[in-house]
Amino acid sequence: HFWSAGHIQLACSGLVDNVTDRWRHLNTFVLASLAKVERNQKKTLSFCSDFAGVDVRIGEAKRVG
């Protein structure tokens, strides 16, 4: 699947602060969709909402930078 955990981490890291609004919107949708899937599987998925300085991983989210 294209949207792997690695892609999520990249999308939510401070490395992509300069992405376009369209890119931000797309990733917000993808992350929210993955969160729904994880909840359905009784797992946890933390995801970022601001795409700035947040490292997101399955089951945990830690502030970086």
Can you describe what's shown?
- The structure is a single chain.
- The protein contains two helices and two strands.
- The radius of gyration is 11 Å and the shape is globular.
- It has one domain (5-63).
- The protein is an alpha+beta fold and 65 residues long.
- The chain has a two-stranded antiparallel ribbon with strand order 1-2.
- Strand 1 and strand 2 (60-63) form a beta hairpin.
- Mean pLDDT is 50; it is low at 13-20 and 42-65.
What is the compact description of this entry?
This protein is of the alpha+beta class.
- Counting structural domains, the number is 1
Low-confidence stretches: 13-20, 42-65
Which structural class do you get from the secondary structure elements?
alpha+beta
Report the strand count: 2
CA radius of gyration is 11 Å
Q: Please state the overall shape, judged from the principal axes of the Cα atoms.
A: globular
Strand content: 5-15%
Count of DSSP helices? 2
List the secondary-structure elements in sequence, H or E.
HHEE
Q: Main β-sheet: number of strands, strand sense, barrel status? A: 2 strands, antiparallel
Helix content: 40-55%
CA-CA gap between termini: 28 Å
Spatial order of the strands forming the largest sheet: 1-2
